[in-house]
From TrEMBL:
It comes from the Eukaryota. The lineage of its organism: Eukaryota, Fungi, Dikarya, Ascomycota, Pezizomycotina. Keywords: Cytoplasm, Exosome, Ribonucleoprotein, Ribosomal protein. GO terms for biological process: nuclear mRNA surveillance; poly(A)-dependent snoRNA 3'-end processing; rRNA catabolic process; U4 snRNA 3'-end processing. GO terms for cellular component: cytoplasmic exosome (RNase complex); nuclear exosome (RNase complex); nucleolus; ribosome. Component of the RNA exosome complex. Specifically part of the catalytically inactive RNA exosome core complex (Exo-9) which may associate with the catalytic subunits RRP6 and DIS3 in cytoplasmic- and nuclear-specific RNA exosome complex forms. Exo-9 is formed by a hexameric base ring of RNase PH domain-containing subunits and a cap ring consisting of CSL4, RRP4 and RRP40. It is found in: Cytoplasm; Nucleus, Nucleolus. The keyword Cytoplasm applies. This is Ribosomal RNA-processing protein 41. Belongs to the RNase PH family. SUPFAM superfamilies: Ribonuclease PH domain 2-like (SSF55666), Ribosomal protein S5 domain 2-like (SSF54211).
Length: 250
């Protein structure tokens, strides 16, 4: 079903009732699986993700090759999609290009934040399972991995939080389009968007992925809205971590 662009100009509301700068409901839990070193469950709207972390553990290979290069821990990321997670019920294997790109993005981003030098010749494994896809899948995976790593007690320099932003549709009379924050699945199909990840509550961008074409003058507004969204996601995850800490003390 095509996106009804008339909704934007008439009511200044999106199809799900949000304004352009509103996040969807975010719900997160920590330590959801007792058998894992670290685990989390996160919902961003109807996108639902489970993440487990194993390690740091001794490298799987022997000799000098085990663990990461330079006597640092190696980070492994695996992402799986449930068969019922999307409407098309497409089965994604390990060779799926999009899944491999997502794994590489997470591995690269967390390699710069985790203090891997504290765990030489070891491996940190991040396993993400997508239960439901409704937009912002990469952003939800990053946020779920962050709190699962916190649960595992693996030291990192700061949070890594992510959000999506898009350029709204324009009519012939519009000279400038408004950016939109935190896209759902239907909006991602119809609008050019990017995924941005920032370090903590700062404006330091660690992840920036854009798979669609957009006019250059729109990118700055999209990025600015995405960074502000990341700051709000950070506040929400802070609350989840604090609440978990209070329960653990009890």
């Amino acid at each position: 079903m095509p996106l009804d662009t008339s909704t934007y100009s008439l009511a200044l509301l999106r199809l799900d009732g949000r304004r352009w700068n509103e996040l969807r409901r975010i719900h997160a839990q920590i330590s959801t699986q007792a058998a894992a070193d670290g685990s989390s469950y996160l919902e961003m709207g109807n996108t639902k993700v489970i993440c487990t972390v194993a390690g740091p553990a001794e490298g799987r290979t022997g000799g000098a090759a085990r663990g990461g290069a330079g006597s640092e821990a190696k980070i492994e990321v695996e992402i799986g999609f449930a068969g019922f997670s999307g409407v098309d019920r497409k089965r994604r294997g390990r060779g799926d290009k999009r899944t491999a790109e997502m794994c590489h993005t997470l591995q690269t981003a967390f390699s710069s934040l985790l203090l891997t030098h504290l765990y030489p010749h070891s491996t940190i494994s991040i396993s993400i399972h997508i239960l439901s896809q409704d937009g912002s899948v990469l952003a939800a995976s990053i946020n779920a991995a962050t709190i699962a790593l916190i649960d595992a007690g693996i030291p990192m320099s700061d949070y890594l939080v992510a959000c999506t932003a898009a350029s709204s549709p324009t009519t012939a009379d519009d000279e400038v389009s408004d950016p939109l924050l935190d896209l759902n699945g239907l909006e991602e199909q119809e609008l050019p968007f990017l995924t941005v990840g920032t370090v903590g509550g700062s404006e330091r961008v660690s992840v920036l992925v854009m798979e669609t074409r957009v006019r250059m003058e729109r990118v700055e507004g999209m990025l600015a809205v995405g960074v502000q969204g990341c700051k709000r996601v950070k506040e929400i995850l802070d609350g989840v971590v604090r609440e978990y800490g209070k329960r653990a003390v009890r």
